[in-house]
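User: For my dataset I need records formatted as: sequence, then structure tokens, nothing else. Please produce one.
Assistant:
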Amino acid sequence: MNEQQPSRYNFRESEGRWQKHWHEANSFAAEASSKKPKYYVLEMFPYPSGNIHMGHVRNYTLGDVVARAKRMQGYNVLHPMGWDAFGLPAENAAIQNKSHPADWTLANIATMREQLKLIGLSYNWSREVATCLPEYYKHEQLFFLKFLENGIAYRKEAEVNWDPVDNTVLANEQVIDGRGWRSGALVERRKLSQWFLRISDFAEDLLESLRSLDRWPEKVRIMQDRWIGKSQGALVTLKVLCRKPGKELIESSLEVYTTRPDTFFGMSFVAIAPEHPLAQDIAAHNPEAAAFIKECSQLGTSEEAIEKAEKKGFDTGLKAVNPFTGSEHSLYIANFVLMGYGTGAIFGCPAHDQRDFEFAKKYKLPILPVVLPPEYDWEGDISAWLDNLVNGNEAYIGDGHIINSDFLNGMDVNAAKQKAIAELEKRGVGEGKTNFRLRDWGVSRQRYWGCPIPIIYCDACGAVPVPEKDLPVELPRDVSFDKPGNPLDHHPTWKHVDCPKCKKKALRETDTFDTFFESSWYFSRFATMPSADPLDKKTLDYWMPVDCYIGGIEHAVLHLLYSRFFSRSLKKCGMVSFDEPFVRLETQGMICHETYKSAEGKWLSPEDITRDDKGQMVEIANKKPVTVGRSEKMSKSKKNTVDPRAMMEAYGADAARLFMLSDSPPERDLEWTDAGIEGAWRYINRLWKLATENKQALAGVNGKDAAAVTDAKLLAVRKATHKTIASVTDDIERFHFNKAVARIRELSNLLEGMAVKTPQEAAVMREALEAIIPLLAPFMPHLGEELWLQMGHKETLASISWPKADAALLVDDSVTVAVQVNGKLRATIELPKDLDKTLAEQKVLELDAVRDALRDKKINKVIVVPNRIVNVVAS
């Protein structure tokens, strides 16, 4: 042992030194032009909230493992970082702290940048972007103008959630129990003129192309499939009758879209959305209808809010006629019908739709079942089933056979749908139609802290695009948050401009883009930085699409779907040549921690508690007992967070990284424990001891000399080394990082028990350590560099090649065979591979466990499955 080496690894000195070296050597810059194959790995960039949390550490460490491994494997790696820097939190902070959103945001970026560097992430910081800076958002303003030219962007009136106190639009997620999340005011539905992008035009392509994304998690593809929501149905024109005493019958028509034309014979009402033109027309002459529509406007616009709300309706007095039976049914204005889906009008079949069922129960409308579960005979006695359904609490929404439906009786549901559509077309009252749940993307936000929409409104010329030469339209710095609403609306000068066409007085658009606009193309900007052309074709053709994209599954729909759409839109405008931005998607689980409550029921943080002499959890401040709750996702509200900076100060970045990577598979939730991080720290010191204690014995030894070793035990170590190289390489590619760490630990455990006294032993030990150190470097980069230095190498791990396994050493000379007696496992035995069946039988019968099991029994036969099983059959 080299007595001069410290017994414990000094991470404080090592980590800072290596981070400084990587920065000064520009170790992680991607090559602008290279003959190497490219690899673009990207984690979803963060919102600069002020401090990193454990979720950041896990997410970015996962990407860093891939980036470091690929770089050592000979790839030209692009691994950038930036900031999703626009958004509502900055405005809220400005109001609370009387600061400017830009100052708050940029200060947070500076803080978080330094915190991320402490983790030892191999980022190419020269490509850093912040979406709140004009040099970034000027490009997306140009994209919007191109979308406008190509018919992708358009303006229309749309329903929004309106907070009448804050005078602003709220996202669906900001409406809590019908009230504004900040003001507490009852939210109203209002119509505002908004800018939209025609994502619905791409619905079919977005759906069909999901099949090609075979390196995405199936769960994400299913979520997008459902969000796009392709459905086959019928567009039907219903006759509407208006009967008033002493007046002539008035006939009109109403279009409904249905995915269940097979259930028309179960129709008991028709309903229209409160925003439907017919509803608005009725309300103009009926105060009660107007009052009901106003009540509906307080429900919000999200499907979730409408789904949870009590189903209510207003009977208009009009009657809708069933196209098959001619029967007349009441027409309602209903709070659960969405104007944005189909035609904003439905026919209700309560027996087979839960919302219709609840509505019918409330208003005592008929419930006529027309679909019988497949386990019943439609021609038999089904009276008991019918009674249970009509008098129960749930509609039957499953498959089955049609009943009570004239010419559809006896058909299965799919056949009945086709037959019903054919009959509607024959009668000239309907046609088959494909519909999508996916609605066009409304990108207007009534906020200050976002990218200004580059439009000018002129009384004479209408909506006029800002000329490209005048981009960017920058946010004014001198804004006030003292008044409710959007500061851009009440800015004294910013919005007042001349019309670019006629030069008359005009007004700027004061809405800003939805922040998903920025995150829908940032991956392309990383690739082209620092070029003035954000979509430089040659560069994008080299780097795009992203090879591996990593982030939370909560972004499965909006961000990922918008990014797919945005790429297609840019391609339609001739600006890029790719459709799909991400080849491979990996989603990471959450980080969880125990929760703690005081005797008074208040949440406590881990820093607030300790154990008393009896081992019980108590508050540090008053020694009162603490209730330990279940482990939940780390959150500020429940105070069960752990500050990563404190962990890195106590144990080092590599220990935090190791625990994050070794405790559970990346896609699963990770349980944070003190024991886990302490275990990681102990293992780091074992590795340090293994390398430094053998440093003197390995000095001057060449690991390549291990190839000449013939000793069986040393050969076994060499095989373990090369199998580890092969397995870890495969595990990293498969994102099985916890398995990779486990294999490295197995090999290091083997080496800890190995003596180094002879030149052959030294050569084998050196070969093994020179494999382990590069293998562990993506997981623990600072330790890896330090150990590599201890081994006498002058170059850094950031510049060496990945270890390669010797294929000859991956072949097993022996196999572990299961030994059974009458099919029951009795033992295992190590046998030479492909051993003769007679010799295998002989070896097995010599085992004590087999002899004991065969006592007083006669062997009937021995079944040998080569290299797998030997089964002795006896009686």
